Amino acid sequence: MPQSVLLVLDVQSLIVERYADPDYLSRLGRAIDAARRAGTPVWYAQVGFRAGFPEVHPRNKMFGALARAAEDGPARQQPPNEIHPAVAPHPQDIVVTKRRVSAFSGSDLDMLLRAAGVDELVLTGIATSGVILSTLRQAADLDYGLTVLSDACADADPEVHRVLVEKVFPMQADVATVADWAAGL
C-alpha cells in the first residue's frame, strides 16, 4: 500500500493575508484534521532565506526584489513569516524550508520523502499557479503519485486556478475536493 503525505505549501501568514477567500483556512484545516485522523503524516514547506538573501540572484523575477531591498535598507533580515497559526504544524510534523517556488527546489524534501518511504503526495497550499504547479511538475518528474485538493489550494486569479485544476493538473495528478478525499481515507 502506498505511503502518502499531505503537503501544506506556502501557507505562511504574510502569504495568506494576500488572498481574499475567508473560508480557505477552514477548508485546509479540514484536510489537515482528516489526514491526522487517518494517520496520514502532515508535512509543511515554507519559503525562506538567510539574512541578506544570499540565495537570491537579482535576476530572479520573483525573489530578486527581496535581495535588492535588503541591499538598500538596514534590515537585511527577512521579516518573520511563520506558517499561519490556524493551520500550524504539530511537533511531529516535518517542516521544510525551500528557496524557490517548488517545494523541492533548494530543500531536502525529496530526501526526506524517500527516507520515509513516501510515494504519494497530496498537495495543498498557496498559490495554485506558483508552488502547487511547480511542485506538481517536479514531483511528477520524480515519479511520485499525486493528488491535488482543489479547494485546499488558492490563487489570486480564480480563472487561472480553475484552468489548472480542471485542465492541467489532471494530466499528472488526481484532483479532488477536501470532502471527497477525506471520505476516501
From TrEMBL:
CDD domains: cysteine_hydrolases. InterPro entries: Isochorismatase-like_dom, Isochorismatase-like_hydrls, Isochorismatase-like_sf. Residues 4-180 form the Isochorismatase-like domain. Keywords: Hydrolase. Pfam families: Isochorismatase (PF00857). The keyword Hydrolase applies. GO terms for molecular function: hydrolase activity. This is Cysteine hydrolase.
